[in-house]
Amino acid sequence: TGKFGQGRIGRLDVGIFGSAILNHIPRLLLQFRQRYPEVQIALHELTKAQQIAALREKRLTIGFNRHVAVEQDIMVETVFLEPLLVALHSKHPLARHKAIRIAEVIDDPLILYPSNTRPGFADDVMALFRAEGAQPRVAQEVTDVVTAVALVASGFGICITPEAASNLRLPGVVYRPVKATPPPTIDLACLYRRNDESPILLAFLEVVRKYGTGKIV
After folding, report:
1. How far is residue 193's CA from residue 134's CA, in Å, rounded to a whole number?
2. CA spacing 20 to 30 A to 154: which of 78, 83, 88, 174?
3. In this structure, are strands 39-45 and 10-16 parallel, antiparallel, or unpaired?
4. Could you tell me which residues come within 8 angstroms of residue 190 by beta carbon, excluding any fewer than 6 positions away?
5. Peptide bond into 37 cis (omega under 30)
6. Is 12 helix (H, G, I), strand (E, B) or coil?
7. Could you read off the pLDDT of 94-115 as tens digits, one per residue?
8. Between 24-35 and 199-212, two packed helices, what is the crossing angle to 10 degrees?
9. Who's near 16: CB < 8 A, 6+ residues apart?
10. Separation in Å, CA 98 to CA 95, 174, 185
């Protein structure tokens, strides 16, 4: 077996997306790299459907995404539940608040993302507003979190983001937790081939599972 059998050398192809690359995935990869410095890590920015296709074609070892349904040949594990935040302009009257209720922003122009992956996070955001008996005023639908937060910085409106997006420190943008009981969250999941028992995948999954419990490997 040697280093190959222990997952210490080889290549890890990781499917990534959107806001998770701003926080959790880099931390996971850093922990893995510290344990297995000889493994080559390649990142591939792909949509959910593209990740599933790449896994089936063995172009990916593992993917990260949200709202992934378990399929006969694809395993899905929740890695982390992220709190949701309201991103708003620093001059917004609610920017002084420590937390914001959805009911307080139902009349604000909403920047919605991602527009290219449905069902998905954008549908969760819409559901938050519907739970308040409101139809949000969608001012813009964009494909990615960076564009959404940039529009907030430019005064186009507010957006709802996972906590990871708060690492986008654009001038004029502040982030506040969504105030609700229980606080709303969004899942970050990993997906991989059900029959894949490669040492590199198993080694990475060990890091992923310990990260999800809050333990540092």
Report:
1. 40
2. 83
3. parallel
4. 62, 63, 64, 76, 77, 79, 205, 208
5. no
6. strand
7. 999 999 999 999 999 999 998 8
8. 130
9. 25, 43, 44, 45, 46, 63, 64
10. 8, 11, 18
> CB within 8 A of 59, min separation 6: which ones?
13, 44
* Pairing of the two strands 185-193 and 62-65: antiparallel
Return the H-helix or E-strand segment holding 39.
strand 39-45
CB contact at 8 A, 196 and 55: no
Strands 137-141 and 62-65: unpaired
Long-range Cβ contacts of 194-198 (<8 Å, 24+ apart): 194/72, 194/73, 194/74, 194/75, 195/73, 196/61, 198/7, 198/10, 198/61
Amino acid identity of 215?
Answer: K
Other beta carbons within 10 angstroms of residue 142's beta carbon come to: 20
Q: What is the number of alpha carbons within 13 Å of residue 117 lying toward its C-beta?
A: 21
